[in-house]
Amino acid sequence: MHNQLPTPHSALTGLTVIDLTRVLGGPYCTQILADHGANVLKIEPPSGDETRMWGPPFVGDTAAYFVGVNRNKEGMSLDLSQEQGRAFLRTLLADADILIENFKPGTLEKWGVGYQTLQQEFPALIHCCISGFGADGPLGGLPGYDACAQAMCGLMSVNGEKNGEPLRVGLPVVDMVTGLNAAIAILMAVNERHTSGLGQHLDITLYDCAISLLHPHAPNYFNSGNIPGRTGNDHPNIAPYESYATGEGEIFLAVGNNRQFALLCQKLNHPALAEDARFINNADRLQNRPQLREVLSVILLDYKAQELAQALLASGVPAAPINNVAQLLDHPHTAHRNMVIEQEGYKGINTPIKLSRTPARFRKGAPALQKPLM
């Protein structure tokens, strides 16, 4: 991300977004839009987005959690449960392109500012609703949370050691993928509006987004009837595709074809291993995975994970050291890719979306909580 230029122009310059979201999925979405030039106004209730208090650590009196997904936004506080607050919201929507919210379904309707009402007043407004399950159906209207979606939608059932308990993925993957899908949906609707001149309702749920992540587990189930289970770091369809201990650190091998396996054996100075009848093809290696693991585990103890991974990658074998967060953030390639931004007292993960002519720009850190306007 670059500093603001005297006449900044980004891919979404000119779009105005009214952001009524809180916690993660919605704010993650609107930070993407804000990074790329959209004018995002984050409207919080008088008590603020609850993630402001999700610390330590804190940046001043605001949790790092909140700071990490709310940069480049303007801030405002409104009590939308009061008619005055909703009236002011309407004045903002008159000049807005997009409304994004993650209220419990039915809340805005109860307040008289649901999609059907706003569509009549602002026909070009794109209304993106993020919810747990949508407004109707067997689970319609119920609240949704990342960990619950991971549990309900099968992600935990395939995450963890083979003989261990189901595990939550160690980051809020459903919330963030929901935010990504919301951003994609918004940009699709903006593009379509160029033709129709009309806005539309975007229905994005944690439930749907969690289900969409079940690859290859759902295709495997559809075509075999076998219920997928936990395999630890092992890939259910490929071998060797798992982590190994080395003499120093752990390495992940992601060998996807026979050529890569032969290269791996060469780099490990055991070329004959690629000709072993047990390991000729992926199906053979998968069937004989325990024996392959036993052989490779002994060989790899003679190597260091960081050095070996670099050498394997250079030779065309997918491999990586298993880094912790500090190692990753301090990695020279992280710096080369400009993936940590440190400007004007702000430090965070930079955008991965890189455009050549209209790059993302840092304009300001997360907004402070404002006093309610009314």
Automatic annotation (TrEMBL):
It comes from the Bacteria. One of its GO terms (molecular function) is transferase activity. Keywords: Transferase. The keyword Nucleus does not apply. SUPFAM superfamilies: CoA-transferase family III (CaiB/BaiF). PANTHER family: SUCCINATE--HYDROXYMETHYLGLUTARATE COA-TRANSFERASE (PTHR48207:SF3). This is CoA transferase.
